[in-house]
Design brief:
Elements (H helix, E strand, L loop, with lengths): L1 E12 L6 E7 L2 E3 L3 E5 L6 H8 L7 E6 L2 E2 L5 H10 L1 E5 L10 H11 L4 H14 L15 H13 L5 E5 L7 H18 L2 E5 L3 H4 L4 E6 L2 E7 L7 H12 L2
Parallel strand pairs: 4-9, 4-10, 7-8, 8-9
Antiparallel strand pairs: 1-2, 1-3, 1-5, 5-6, 10-11
Helix pairs in contact: 3-4, 3-5, 5-6
Length: 247
C-alpha cells in the first residue's frame, strides 16, 4: 500500500531569468513500511523534495499525497496536525534543547501536545530504552556522544508514533561507526515497527541500508534501484549505481 506519492512535483525558486528549478515534475511512490534513500549530487533537489514531502514548503506545481490525501488541500490547522502526529523529522544537526535531559528532549513533541507529563516521560523512556539509552536518559545533550544525541533525536521523532519518518542527512555529522549504527537503527525501525522512512544521504554506505534508492539529478528522477535483501555487496552495488547515474 502506498503511503507517499508525488504527482508532477515541481519547485521553482525566483522568477524570470533568475528562476531556478529545484524539482522538475517528480513522480515517486513509496510504500507503507519501506525504507527509501534519496541520492544525487549537491543541488539536485534532495532536501527540497524532503521539505515538500513534510509540508515544510509548498510546490510550484504538482502535489504531495500522503495516505491518499493531498496535503495542498489541507487547512493550515490540518497540515500542522499532520506534521505533529503523522510525520517525524530527523536532521543532520540534532537540534536538541541543551538544558533538557535526553528524556525531556525525546518527550517534547507529545508534551507540547498536552499529554500528561508522566505519560510523556514513560513513552520517551520506552523509545530511549529501545535505542540502548535507558541509562543515559537523564543526561543532557552535552553529556552524550554525537551518535547518542542522534538516537535521542530519532526517539523524539518516533515518540508520537508517526507512520512516516523524514531524515535529512541523519549521519552527516557523525563518524563512520556512529553513522553505521544510526543507519542500522533506522532500518530496524522500518522493519520492526513498520515505519516508512525516507532518508536523504550522499553516502553510498549509508544508502545501502535502505530497501530502495531514488536518484535525483538536475531536479529529476533519473534512476530507481531496488536493493537485494540478502546481498553482501549492497554497498558496492550502490557505489556502482552512483557512478552510472553521475553523482
Amino acid at each position: 500500500m502506498s503511503l507517499v506519492q508525488t504527482q508532477n512535483l515541481t519547485k521553482i525558486y525566483g522568477s524570470g531569468s533568475t528562476a531556478v528549478t529545484a524539482l522538475d515534475h517528480v513522480n515517486i511512490n513509496i510504500h507503507d513500511g519501506e525504507f527509501v534513500a534519496i541520492m544525487g549530487p549537491s543541488g539536485c533537489g534532495k532536501s527540497t523534495l524532503l521539505h515538500l514531502l513534510g509540508g515544510l514548503d509548498t510546490p510550484s506545481e504538482g502535489k504531495v499525497v500522503i495516505d491518499g490525501t493531498s496535503i495542498a488541500e489541507m487547512s493550515d490547522e490540518k497540515l500542522t496536525e499532520l506534521r505533529r502526529r503523522r510525520i517525524g523529522f530527523v536532521f543532520q544537526f540534532f537540534n536538541l534543547i541543551p538544558v533538557l535531559s535526553a528524556a525531556e528532549n525525546a518527550a517534547l513533541p507529545i508534551t507540547l501536545e498536552g499529554i500528561r507529563p508522566a505519560d510523556a516521560a514513560a513513552k520517551a523512556q520506552e523509545w530511549l530504552g529501545r535505542f540502548g539509552l535507558a541509562e543515559r536518559s537523564s543526561n543532557r545533550p552535552d553529556q552524550l556522544s554525537g551518535g547518542e544525541q542522534q538516537r535521542v533525536a530519532i526517539a523524539r521523532a518516533l515518540v508520537a508514533e508517526p507512520s512516516l519518518i523524514l531524515a535529512d542527512e541523519p549521519t552527516g555529522n557523525l563518524d563512520t561507526h556512529s553513522g553505521d549504527e544510526i543507519a542500522g537503527l533506522l532500518r530496524d525501525v522500518s522493519k520492526q515497527y513498520n515505519r516508512t522512512i525516507i532518508m536523504v544521504t550522499h553516502d553510498p554506505r549509508i544508502a545501502a541500508y535502505a530497501d530502495r534508492i531514488i536518484f535525483l539529478k538536475d531536479g529529476k528522477v533519473v534512476d530507481e534501484t531496488l536493493l537485494e535483501k540478502k546481498s553482501t555487496k549492497r554497498e558496492q552495488m550502490v557505489e556502482a549505481k552512483v557512478k552510472e547515474v553521475g553523482d
